[in-house]
Amino acid sequence: xxxxxxxxxxxxxxxxxxxxxxxxxxxxxxxxxxxxxxxxxxxxxxxxxxxxxxxxxxxxxxxxxxxxxxxxxxxxxxxxxxxxxxxxxxxxxxxxxxxxxxxxxxxxxxxxxxxxxxxxxxxxxxxxxxxxxxxxxxxxxxxxxxxxxxxxxxxxxxxxxxxxxxxxxxxxxxxxxxxxxxxxxxxxxxxxxxxxxxxxxxxxxxxxxxxxxxxxxxxxxxxxxxxxxxxxxxxxxxxxxxxxxxxxxxxxxxxxxxxxxxxxxxxxxxxxxxxxxxxxxxxxxxxxxxxxxxxxxxxxxxxxxxxxxxxxxxxxxxxxxxxxxxxxxxxxxxxxx
Amino acid sequence: xxxxxxxxxxxxxxxxxxxxxxxxxxxxxxxxxxxxxxxxxxxxxxxxxxxxxxxxxxxxxxxxxxxxxxxxxxxxxxxxxxxxxxxxxxxxxxxxxxxxxxxxxxxxxxxxxxxxxxxxxxxxxxxxxxxxxxxxxxxxxxxxxxxxxxxxxxxxxxxxxxxxxxxxxxxxxxxxxxxxxxxxxxxxxxxxxxxxxxxxxxxxxxxxxxxxxxxxxxxxxxxxxxxxxxxxxxxxxxxxxxxxxxxxxxxxxxxxxxxxxxxxxxxxxxxxxxxxxxxxxxxxxxxxxxxxxxxxxxxxxxxxxxxxxxxxxxxxxxxxxxxxxxxxxxxxxxxxx
Amino acid sequence: xxxxxxxxxxxxxxxxxxxxxxxxxxxxxxxxxxxxxxxxxxxxxxxxxxxxxxxxxxxxxxxxxxxxxxxxxxxxxxxxxxxxxxxxxxxxxxxxxxxxxxxxxxxxxxxxxxxxxxxxxxxxxxxxxxxxxxxxxxxxxxxxxxxxxxxxxxxxxxxxxxxxxxxxxxxxxxxxxxxxxxxxxxxxxxxxxxxxxxxxxxxxxxxxxxxxxxxxxxxxxxxxxxxxxxxxxxxxxxxxxxxxxxxxxxxxxxxxxxxxxxxxxxxxxxxxxxxxxxxxxxxxxxxxxxxxxxxxxxxxxxxxxxxxxxxxxxxxxxxxxxxxxxxxxxxxxxxxx
Amino acid sequence: xxxxxxxxxxxxxxxxxxxxxxxxxxxxxxxxxxxxxxxxxxxxxxxxxxxxxxxxxxxxxxxxxxxxxxxxxxxxxxxxxxxxxxxxxxxxxxxxxxxxxxxxxxxxxxxxxxxxxxxxxxxxxxxxxxxxxxxxxxxxxxxxxxxxxxxxxxxxxxxxxxxxxxxxxxxxxxxxxxxxxxxxxxxxxxxxxxxxxxxxxxxxxxxxxxxxxxxxxxxxxxxxxxxxxxxxxxxxxxxxxxxxxxxxxxxxxxxxxxxxxxxxxxxxxxxxxxxxxxxxxxxxxxxxxxxxxxxxxxxxxxxxxxxxxxxxxxxxxxxxxxxxxxxxxxxxxxxxx
Lengths: 337, 337, 337, 337
What we know:
The structure is a homotetramer.
Chain A: E1 2-5, H1 11-23, E2 27-32, E3 37-42, H2 49-54, E4 59-63, E5 83-85, E6 88-90, E7 96-100, H3 107-120, E8 124-126, H4 144-157, E9 160-164, H5 171-177, E10 180-183, H6 191-198, E11 204-207, H7 214-226, E12 232-236, H8 254-261, E13 266-268, H9 270-274, H10 280-289, E14 294-298, H11 316-333
Parallel strand pairs in A: 7-8, 7-14, 8-9, 9-10, 10-11, 11-12, 12-13, 13-14
Antiparallel strand pairs in A: 1-3, 1-4, 2-3, 5-6
């Protein structure tokens, strides 16, 4: 930690901060610069130290030099983590594609979709049974009935099932049916829920919140890892910016950035990341070229009549074409899909 | 709803959309413009209609014309809602000030703070017993012990107690001790939690998420109102933008904007909204001038040794001065404080 | 234009707005909805009409239905524009790669770079002679001497030269040496400068400002097109968001979005778009997969000693590898590079 | 400057960076931490050093510890600068109010407005003669005729005239008529223009660009100061964020922040900062409470028929009421208005 003193800080203030640094168990090196004084606080950067030092009198700012996440860090484990469950393999050279409708609506819809995405080469089926909706007046999902339909679709196709869990109290129920448990963007910092899925045996797909920094995302993953579950996939699904021509802004540089910081695989969601069907195929291809370890795509047999997210869902034919395109780009990148 | 067709939409596509509009229970008026065709879909704008129409072929965009929230709307109830509980009164001409530490740390700390903020004129005590922390390695709060200390501070000072609840399963416990239940920014879209506090008798302080739109905030309030709890205070606590000289950007225009859209009172949090102690007094004054119905301020007897948020906490003397300043501005605005 | 009246607008206010709509030369259709009244104003949406109508009493909002740009619009010209000058071809199936240093520093540097990027397959040479710098104390470029060195590099390699112009008064000088004139992000809304390059024969590379919307970018292009220059390349170089792990956020969905709205080609700049050398290769590949018509890349023979932007420049070997990668992805996308 | 090495940096890389630091004229202190090595580079932080060091092999990041602006810095000059010209006084205890229409339209309009704002207590007149417009098809201002009308309004009322200059070539003409020259938000980083107004005797009102950081704003001011003009007023006029209920987001914490960093006065523009007339009065009051040294407000005798910005202009009566409100808040803040 580097404690930068204000230009007009007094000798007394500097001495006080040196004492505080030492009382916190760190070694203090004082560097008297031409224009101001800096105290290097050497030692493990425990959480909270920065905040504490920052409130000292005469302190201009405190610059941390270590990342606050540990288990997620690439410095700790350099080989990439490969998440593998049933038909799905994500990470390393494996590019997994998770496809399916926003919401599970009925048996026919989910079975037709599952068969179609399987035929086009998807490696897992997505579908929401518990739906977080911005308005209390919107369709909230079929709940356990939806989970049962997903399980039936798995039985019919062999595809692993990825579905979202909204609340701690639902974790056991969802885990009974799901192969991968998804934490949605709105719940990225629902720490109790992260701890709960951290105790389950299923891999977790953790979606980035729309205003979460990379550090916050990695610390959210750290909650799950720290609770004992090593199988976490990070999911970039777009951030909130001033742009309005897309529902969210999809910042693909997060893929190579995350690869440099963590061993966890990175999945991209171009459906939520753009919010418009016609932008999905090319952004799926771009995600693959950026190095994504997986894609998650909304597919619906009849988007116009979908109960949610029709405007950003691919129909079956569009999905097959998107898979074609991504397969070519994956080959160019040396990935297996 | 206004369905704008693409410039090159065919007559067939227009007819199809007219049928869809009618099949959804709306009346369709087709307007043939010089350059493109527009279909006005007249009738109640149920949630989901926009999304559904938007996925139609030949549609360029769909423009809704009604707000999706109902109970929160000023069009439904024009007089301002006044939330009153114990010593706290927020709304209308009443400016309430909620003050106290980020975290409850021990009996001495919370009692000293409570007495000091009371003496300076605060109308309620804040303090966290369950703390949502970005890192799993940070102090997570004293939990029930913290709640008991808050209740003791209320007994000693008569101040109403405002404290955060993090999870559905904690709602009964928190409600046993709290006068006002706070939903933190990270949980603004934790809908299960919103429903749970919507069933409690206590007023709710609902914090805006750092990337939430005004509409999303009002729809989150709608979840609580719709569950039966009419006493909701909205809290502006800053949004995430490209600015880094403040922890968040505090957009005070949300105060008069919300007053134009909703009858619910609006509280501002200049501590989280700036993230730096030295910016808090003036932004508190600015919040009052913008028309805020309440303030929530972090106050700690010894910020440098606070277990959390010391860098943005006022000490007792700074708080007293801030109250002085705000009282003068409140008088200029015709508010009682 | 759709004029949405407030719910409580009076009959008098509606009548007044109908008259205003008609006095502005538009046809007014009044639609009485269940909950509020809407006036459809049919006719050409001249600039300024929206603003004018919006200030009427009783008006809630005004929704335009036509894009404000004309010449840039894909609705006007559906085949893609191909910009071709010397060795550079951008648009349609042609993927052009513009490479070179941030600043021209000296003869050796620019000649070595030009030869190296040519050998690796670049189609044009970039290099700054007039440099816009955030600080007045930074290196501001070699000015005309830099332009002469660029011309010498063109003579030596046959590569077309792309260089920035900062001010109206420099346009004739820059045009004397450049094959393509670049408008930098800071000058995207320097309208006098846009008009000036709009009168030149050289193609223009127009960079998106870091907080410009797509509409603002297209209207800036419209200034150039309207002044008579049809050869405009749009350049996505990243936007300013809350993200700090990259210098800017590179939103690649703007590529397919722009392709749907305009016939102008779209070039991507992954160097400025990320701000870190190690992120450039994968984001260059992702840009190609997103459908970019061109890339502009910072390359320096010795980035550590570059006078500007070394931290985001590729060295010669990294550039050659990036070209290899992009060539494979371009082939997968059916583009010629 | 603090050079943080990567965790796995080699001894060779550390030695190389120590040499580079020393070759750049700085003193190097190497600090061997528990987990990584840090090199403190002590000495004047010339522009470009950070960028240069950052591209070294084995370097994780470089943390500067000094602000890059000098003349604008409060550390250099601690008393606030008061800008005074004719009827206008801004800074210290003086709160100046600049009011008038977006565009000068004709003699009657500007004279009526000037008399009305003078009567209500404004200290200067604003009005645009050269207008930067997003679309080439919009009204671009009356140019020199507009300047003449502004001068006539000054003669009639005694109010100092504030007007924008768009281009270097117009500086002499504008300076012939204006008391204060305004640099608009779009031109904040038009460095040639900054240098040009830096050589004029008139004070400059420098508007913050919608995505400019505080540091970029202060460095833009530094261009003007460095060219010899000490009379610079900074103007906060809102930033671009994800919010859409206001045209821009007005971040008032920039006022106390700037006061802590610079001696230059800070003016706030709540008209552009909100984009809606009904939000202006309260945000003007909030600006004063935040400590603003000045306000700039759009006022039009007939906003509905204004040629630009009617939707965010106050009419004469609304302006008088806003002045009343601000005067009370200014008194509460100890300011003279």
